[in-house]
Amino acid sequence: MKRLFESLVVLSLVALIAAPAWAEDKEEKKAARKKGKKGRQAQVIAGPLAAQLEKANLTEEQKKQIAEIKEKYTAKVAECRQAVSAVLTREIRQARAAAMKQAREEGKKGAELKAAVAAAVELSAEQKKALEDAQAKMQEVQKSLRGEVLAVLTDEQKKALGLDKPARGGKKKDKTDA
Q1: What angle do CA 58, 62, 66 make, to 5 degrees?
Q2: Is 94 helix (H, G, I), strand (E, B) or coil?
Q3: What gap in Å lies between CA 38 and CA 40, rounded to an integer?
Q4: CB-based contact 143:167 (threshold 8 Å)
Q5: For 51-110, how does the pLDDT look when each residue is reduced to its tens digit (9 = 90+)?
Q6: Alpha carbon 29 to chain centroid distance?
Q7: I need a surface site. Which of 2, 26, 103, 126 has the fewest CB within 10 A?
Q8: Other beta carbons within 10 Å of 30
Q9: Which of 174, 173, 151 is nearest to 163 (CA)?
Q10: What is the pTM of this model?
Q11: 3-class SS shares of the chain: helix, strand, coil, % to 5
């Protein structure tokens, strides 16, 4: 009986000591999730350009100019993302992600993959038009953003980072002209 009582006292003390640590851990995880969401929303320069800028030896003046450009485009990018989110609800995005995962597992690529994802969630003509418009506006904003950021860099920095080439997706030369 005495042994049982001692065990209960020890377990109570352990629980009493560990409870604040568990609560603190939960709060830290919650804060990290919130920070992550804000980080994604506030991320204006993303993808390869962001990675290349990390490697660049930017002067303080260039960093300041790029920060101003980011500030200028934050609202525009958020507006574009909001327009896409208005069409692609959480349920639609989840269904598309599941369809994409399944199609990739089946070995589909390119146009076949795109068709499988499109077939998984049938969007109305109105939704398709709204999505195309939102994506076109996003591409326009990103192209403008990229242009302004590249204008801040020196020719040597662009060349060192491989940014002296035109952006992908430009007009292709017609093979019949050659």
Answers
A1: 110
A2: helix
A3: 5
A4: yes
A5: 777 777 888 998 899 889 888 888 888 898 898 888 888 888 898 899 899 999 999 888
A6: 20
A7: 2
A8: 10
A9: 151
A10: 0.59
A11: 80, 0, 20
Token representation of residue 68: 């101003």
Place of tokens 């604040």: 20
**Location of structure tokens 């991320």:** 43
pLDDT of residue 118: 83
Tell me which residue of 104, 135, 100 sits closest to 120, measured CA to CA.
100
Q: How far apart are the first and last CA of the chain?
A: 97
Instruction: Map residue 61 onto helix, strand or coil.
Output: helix
At position 43, the amino acid (one-letter code) is: Q
Q: Tokens representing 122? A: 């049938």
Q: Report the 3 state secondary structure along 117-170.
A: HHHHCCCCHHHHHHHHHHHHHHHHHHHHHHHHHHHHCCHHHHHHHCCCCCCCCC
